Amino acid sequence: MSNVKLGRKSTAVAAENVDKRTEPGVESDKLSAKHSRVKHWLKRILLGSLALLIVLIGFYGWELYSATSELAGQHNPVKLFATLLPQPLAESQGRINILLAGYSIDDPNHAGAQLTDSIMIVSINPKMKTGILLSVPRDLWVRVPGNGYAKINAAYEYGQWEHFNQSGYFPGGIGLLEKVLGKIVGLNFNYYSLIDYAAFRDAVNAVGGININIQSPDPRGIYDAFTHLKLPNGNDHLNGQQALALARARGDDVAGDISYGIPNSDFTRTMYQRQMLIAVKDKADKVTSLFNPLTFFRLLEAVEKNVKTNLNIGEMVSLYRDTKNMPSKNIQTIALNDFHGRNLLSNYYVDGQEALVPTSGPFDYSQIRSAVRQMIN
Prior knowledge:
Blueprint: H1 2-21, H2 24-72, H3 77-83, E1 96-102, E2 118-125, E3 130-135, E4 141-144, E5 148-151, H4 155-161, H5 173-185, E6 191-195, H6 197-206, E7 210-214, E8 222-224, E9 229-231, E10 234-238, H7 240-248, H8 266-287, H9 293-306, E11 307-309, H10 313-323, E12 331-335, E13 345-350, E14 353-358, H11 366-376
Parallel strand pairs: 1-6, 3-12
Antiparallel strand pairs: 1-2, 2-3, 4-5, 6-11, 7-10, 8-9, 13-14
Helix pairs in contact: 2-9, 4-5, 6-7, 6-9, 7-8
């Protein structure tokens, strides 16, 4: 009896299997439905990605148009496109000389906001792919035409007050600063850039921060009581706010708060300023491209909102092209107090304040002009 039952069960199972084998359409229909659902979702994902890409292209395109049109002062798309094409740069004896000045006009709580506490000369040889960064101390005692004697950082402010406008010079305060500085260093300037705090901070943030090597004589590194910046010796990664604090560091004691590691005040600060400018350039060269549009737009926005310059966009494109692949080792960074081991400045006391004058004597700039010519040639 048991054998019969087993035989019947086996027969039933076999019949069931035969039935399944004889109905191939059931499984194929299920597979077809599953493939259809997968294709449907893939199609939706692809369409969604395409829509997102179109939105991003539109957004970045609009951002680019908005920023460049404001920078160029041109809102006609056809004419704006023409301004984006590289344009020849003005030169003086084969060099592009730029007066770079920094002020704190964007800081309403800063006394003397129109004083240019950072003054640099950027001189580029586009053919040789070399450059020079020369810092000029803010405390240099100078003659300011029509305004008597003052520290050089006041020249811009005087020029703004009197609406300076003379043939051969930039208009406004930057033109008066150009006139004073040109006589000191013996250079003709082709361009200028006037930069506020936010421009430097935002540019550093736009490239994702910069690395600076702090080499203080104090084993603790540096601490500035004015900005409350504290950094250890060695390689430090700085965000925009930290970089700005280092660019403003004075090394002075404030209300019992003791600074350390900034022994030469303005000279130490300008040394780090030059290092940070090169660091921003190097980082921008690495991260700005068509494949990283966000960084490019952030840099463009920092320039458009916070930099005044007589460079038009086409000239900016040419300048970027000429300097993009310039190695940092090809850029000399120099200060007048340490000009290849020579100090071209002396302390000077006038009207109860400390100032600086050339070692050759007040208002005698022959040594400085000679050193600059030697450096450039």
